[in-house]
UniProtKB/TrEMBL annotation:
Ranges where the Protein CPL1-like domain occurs: 148-201
Biased composition, class Gly residues, residue ranges: 35-84
Region Disordered, residue ranges: 32-102
Name under which the protein is recorded: Protein CPL1-like domain-containing protein
Assigned keywords, A-Z: Signal
InterPro entries per record: CPL1-like, PriA/CPL1_fungi
UniProt KW Membrane keyword: no
Domain of life: Eukaryota
Pfam families per the UniProt record, alphabetical: CPL1-like
Length: 206
């Protein structure tokens, strides 16, 4: 009887050791499932109770599990919102590409005015109306003088040209004019102030 009892106890201990050896990998597996694996492109989700996986290539993090918070930009079903910071493109603060600067360095005066602004805009130097006799010469002169970009076909203060070179390009300076416009690069007087009469696109004092 004693021998039988000892055999039974030994069998019980053996079964316990076998159960532990079987359940340990499952516990590890459960932990791995709960945490969720990182996706190559940030698309892998989390396990039932864990956060979403990470991203190796800068993509969005995967969503969290049913009860876990999402990491990065994706939130879990019952967890908190994503902790990732949304990406917003920022303007570049780098200087103009060297080839472009070298191209401008070969130009002068009006050529630079035509090329220094984007699209069809024209560069005008910053200076009081009628104070300059010519446009800045080289690129360094333009940068030192300062400039702004205008649409010479419609800009009231630089209509048909730069007011810094000739005050006539500033339509708002027309004597006696109340309402003016810039049409195809020419100042047009629409109405005159009291005591002035509209006469051939100008205002004449009464």
């Amino acid at each position: 009887m004693t021998v039988f009892a000892r055999s039974l106890i030994g069998l019980t201990l053996a079964l316990s050791v076998f159960a532990v050896s079987v359940t340990e990998p499952d516990a590890v597996t459960a932990t791995r499932v709960a945490r969720g694996g990182g996706g190559n492109n940030g698309n892998s989700g989390g396990g039932p109770y864990g956060p979403g996986g990470g991203s190796n290539n800068g993509g969005h993090d995967g969503p969290g599990g049913p009860h876990g918070p999402g990491s990065g930009n994706g939130g879990g079903n019952h967890g908190g919102g994503g902790g990732g910071k949304p990406h917003h493109p920022e303007p570049s603060h780098r200087p103009p590409p060297r080839p472009y600067r070298r191209a401008l360095d070969t130009l002068h005066g009006a050529q630079i005015a035509d090329e220094i602004c984007p699209g069809d805009a024209y560069g005008c130097p910053i200076a009081p109306a009628g104070s300059l006799s010519s446009l800045p010469n080289g690129l360094d002169d333009w940068v030192n003088q300062g400039f702004y970009c205008v649409d010479r076909t419609a800009d009231l203060t630089d209509c048909g040209g730069c007011a810094a070179l000739d005050a006539k390009h500033d339509c708002t300076r027309i004597t006696g004019a109340k309402s003016v416009s810039c049409v195809s690069g020419s100042c047009v007087v629409d109405s005159c102030l009291p005591n002035f009469t509209l006469d051939s696109n100008s205002c004449t004092a009464n």
